[in-house]
Structure formats: structure tokens, C-alpha cells
Amino acid sequence: MRILLVEDEVGIIQFLQQGLEEEGYSITTASNGEAALQLLLENNFDLVLLDWMLPKITGIEVCREFRKKNKTTPIIFLTAKDTVQETIEGLQAGANDYVKKPFSFDELVARIKIHFRNQETQVLNLGSIEINLSNRLVYVNNQEVTLTHREFELLCYLVKNKGKVCTRTQIIEEVWDIHFDYDTGVIDVFMNSIRKKLNIKKEEDCIKTIRGVGYIAND
């Protein structure tokens, strides 16, 4: 799991980075808000630990700008600000959680694990393909791929039923919500588009066509 740690105090950065890496997390650091925002917009992180008071751009401004891009990566504020109004302001800016300084490292790790547990139910995987259900984003080898609404729904249906043959009738009924005779050839058109966008090579195809029946997704 990749965590972006944004903090301007060197001692805290070193302490948290060492401790979190020992817990098995991959840590990237930033010491000012401007660098943090650039990293967030150019990379895919699983969680952000964000200090409020930062040079150049404050943490709360980073949070607001990041959320404007419809990014849903969990953000935990690490801050000495502790009034009720400040807590509310941070949450309204888009933060998911709030840990007040000084804090227990064990408590922080526990909160991080809770957020990752919540995320696990929102992510589907098929080989090198990752589907984030909460923000409807698809990645192949960590590179974002843009799918249409119907392509996304079709891919999700197949991956949710990984290992099972999905018939054309089932797909039309569940994905298209059509419950009468309909030309199921439209499914092939969407599958061709999905394969092309995901750059799935024929010999490595993780979504196989079962001729005359439907499709099956397998790792």
C-alpha cells in the first residue's frame, strides 16, 4: 500500500517514515503543500497523511484542491489544531479522518488499517487490472484507463463473477437491464473496446470468449 506523508518537520517525517515502512507500507514524502499537490495529481496513492500547517500551500488547501479533481483517496489530517470548528473545517474540506498532535503511533497505524480495510471492499482486481468502485477508476499496471459508463459496468460484472461463465443473456439482463429479446452482438462491440483500452494481448487475455455462450474472467 502506498502512502503519501506530507509534513514539514524533519523529525516527524523520519519517525513516521521509518515506523510505517516497518509496518510494510511504501512511503513517499513531501515537505510543503505545493510539492504534495503535484505528487497527488501525478501519482496514485492509497492514503494520504497530511499536516495542516505547511509551507507554500496549507494542508487544508491541498485537500480542497485535490477533492476538486474528484479524487477520493483517503486523507488523514495530522495536526495540532484541535478546536471543534477546525475539526469541522478539515472534514468539510474533504478529509476522512483527523489525528491530533501529539498522537500515539499505534493509534495512527490502527486508523490507517481501518481505512485500508474499508478500501479493500471497494477494489476489484483481475491480473494487472485494478478497478476502484468508489471513484469508478480503472488502472492497468498502475496506469489509469478511461472507460465509458457501459464499459465500466460490463468489466465490473465480469470481474465480480471471476471464474464463472457469464452468458450473453445474463450480461444483457444485468448490465444493460434488458429483459426481452435483444441483439446480444452489442456485447462483442463493447468487449472489443475494453480489450483495446486495457491493452489485453490475445495470448494473455484474462477475459476469454466462450463461443456461443458468453465470457469468463480469470487471473
Automatic annotation (TrEMBL):
Keywords: DNA-binding, Phosphoprotein, Transcription, Transcription regulation, Two-component regulatory system
Residues annotated to bind DNA: 121-219
Record-annotated Response regulatory domain positions: 2-116
Segment forming the signal sequence: none
Protein name: Response regulator transcription factor
Every OmpR/PhoB-type domain range: 121-219
Species annotation: Flavobacterium keumense
Keyword Transcription applies: yes
InterPro entries assigned to the protein according to its UniProt record, in alphabetical order: CheY-like_superfamily (IPR011006), OmpR/PhoB-type_DNA-bd (IPR001867), Sig_transdc_resp-reg_receiver (IPR001789), WalR-like (IPR039420), WH-like_DNA-bd_sf (IPR036388)
Lineage of producing organism: Bacteria, Pseudomonadati, Bacteroidota, Flavobacteriia, Flavobacteriales
Modified residue annotations for 4-aspartylphosphate: 51
Keyword Transcription appears in the UniProt entry: yes
PROSITE patterns: OMPR_PHOB (PS51755), RESPONSE_REGULATORY (PS50110)
